[in-house]
């Protein structure tokens, strides 16, 4: 269970302020990404199930409350905050969210929270951390999987992730986006994912002779073994495997001129009748390098990808925000919007509609809650009421199937382009209702509204 103290101090100071003022009015916040990172034409939503786990279990322990009493910034907070409010605290709000595995775009809410002000405020930091990390990983993994063009990709990034728990959640997100398995054993146990692994160079180096290392490994794991063959001379290792009559399930290449080595190793294996022995490649791979390998005709059957997925090497921070869109005045909903230069927000509770034409996604419409759009499906659904889930968790591999199906609906230029060349962006429009609300809220504040809400 994640500690309630894993948050920013200002969340607690605002909680205490709301309580001191007796303000428990509902607030609605939306979590979204302002702009897509470079090299991204879409994101893949992930992290919702982890977020719901956090919300359901959110409590303050006696030790945590005792420690908070000593924080200088909270020294003037009324004692009732520590004695009465925090011991009984629980999240009892409502959450709407995009399903995990769904492609999303800039300014589209991934998640919407409505709860009494102290509750809605406290959860901001954790929800941003949970949802953005897994969405970032899933978005990168989806690109890697697309580049592999149907060849299996295994997530290998545990040792490169920013922390052990982050590595487990990264494996989960990568599998949502299409990776066939992970090297992370705890992720396999926790999320019922296939786990995969081979051997290290240290295994080979620990034997007097390379072939002894291979024989020893296969003595334990039999024909299911994958042998790492690039410790010394890659092609010579393949020949020795053949000469010894070994028939491993796969061999792995982790260094060198991968296209040329793969061709030579494939020739050695095929000449010996080992057509079923697959070639797996690893070693600082990403979607661009995989695309180049396959473009050069490298006979590689599977890929192990670590750093570029688990650490999202090219876009490690996803610029998501959690912004207030509605408060309450005299018992009635009151849409609000921030008009800061470059950081304006859109008022009101929103729904995202994906317009479909002949089975393919045409464009999205960002609309107000309650509006409907023809020939479209809504993306946000209610996932929590009164602080409890409305449905049990969905298995990760079921999310993966949905993700691959949803990605296939996107236009090819959005789904498949891996380069940085200009391409038509996926269109996200604002509904008439949302445009009208922006104008009314701006007028009420004496601010000139843009014809099109900020994107």
Question: What would you note in describing this structure?
Answer:
Helices cover 38% and strands 19% of the residues. The chain contains 17 helices and 19 strands. The chain has helices spanning 9-21, 48-57, 62-69, 79-85, 117-122, 124-147, 164-176, 185-191, 201-205, 210-221, 234-243, 258-271, 287-295, 307-310, 396-409, 412-415, 432-444; strands at residues 26-33, 43-44, 94-98, 103-104, 111-116, 153-155, 181-182, 226-228, 250-253, 278-281, 302-305, 320-329, 332-335, 350-357, 360-368, 376-378, 380-385, 388-389, 428-430. It has a 7-stranded antiparallel sheet. A 6-stranded parallel sheet has the order 7-6-11-10-9-8. It has a 4-stranded mixed sheet with strand order 16-14-15-19. α7 (164-176) links the parallel β6 and β7 (181-182). The model has no long low-confidence stretch (mean pLDDT 94).
Task: Please provide a brief summary of the model.
This protein has 455 residues and is of the alpha/beta class.
């Amino acid at each position: 269970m994640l500690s309630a103290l894993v948050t920013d101090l200002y969340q607690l100071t605002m909680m205490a302020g709301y309580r001191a003022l007796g303000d428990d009015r509902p607030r609605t916040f939306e979590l979204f990404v302002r702009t897509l990172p470079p090299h991204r034409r879409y994101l893949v939503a992930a992290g919702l199930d982890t977020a719901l786990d956090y919300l359901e279990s959110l409590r303050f322990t006696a030790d945590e409350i005792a420690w908070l009493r000593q924080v200088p910034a909270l020294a003037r907070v009324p004692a009732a905050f520590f004695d009465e409010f925090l011991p009984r605290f629980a999240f009892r709000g409502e959450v709407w969210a995009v399903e995990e595995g769904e492609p999303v775009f800039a300014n589209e809410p991934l998640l919407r929270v409505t709860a009494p002000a102290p509750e809605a405020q406290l959860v901001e930091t954790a929800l941003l951390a949970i949802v953005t990390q897994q969405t970032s990983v899933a978005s990168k993994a989806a690109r890697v999987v697309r580049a592999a063009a149907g060849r299996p990709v295994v997530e290998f990034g545990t040792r490169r992730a920013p922390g052990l728990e982050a590595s487990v959640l990264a494996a989960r997100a990568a599998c949502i986006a299409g990776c066939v398995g992970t090297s992370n054993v705890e992720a396999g146990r926790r999320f019922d994912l296939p786990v995969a692994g081979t051997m290290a160079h240290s295994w080979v180096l620990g034997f007097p002779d390379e072939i002894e290392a291979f024989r020893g490994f296969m003595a334990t794991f039999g024909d299911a073994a994958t042998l790492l063959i690039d410790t010394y001379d890659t092609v010579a290792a393949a020949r020795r495997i053949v000469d010894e009559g070994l028939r491993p399930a796969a061999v792995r290449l982790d260094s060198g001129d991968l296209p040329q080595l793969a061709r030579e190793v494939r020739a050695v294996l095929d000449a010996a009748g080992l057509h079923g022995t697959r070639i797996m490649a690893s070693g600082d791979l990403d979607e661009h390098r995989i695309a180049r390998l396959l473009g050069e005709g490298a006979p590689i059957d599977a890929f192990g990808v670590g750093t570029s997925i688990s650490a999202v090497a090219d876009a490690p921070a996803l610029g998501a925000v959690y912004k207030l869109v509605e408060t309450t005045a005299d018992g009635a909903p009151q849409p609000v919007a921030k008009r800061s230069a470059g950081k304006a927000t859109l008022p009101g509770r929103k729904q995202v509609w994906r317009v479909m034409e002949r089975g393919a996604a045409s464009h999205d419409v960002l609309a107000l809650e309650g509006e409907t759009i023809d020939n479209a499906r809504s993306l946000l659904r209610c996932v929590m009421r009164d602080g409890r889930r409305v449905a049990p968790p969905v298995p990760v591999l079921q999310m993966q199937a949905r993700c691959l199906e949803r990605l296939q609906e996107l236009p090819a230029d959005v789904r498949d382009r891996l380069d940085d060349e200009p391409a038509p962006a996926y269109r996200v429009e604002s509904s008439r209702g949302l445009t009208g609300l922006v104008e009314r809220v701006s007028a009420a504040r004496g601010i000139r509204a843009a014809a099109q809400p900020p994107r």
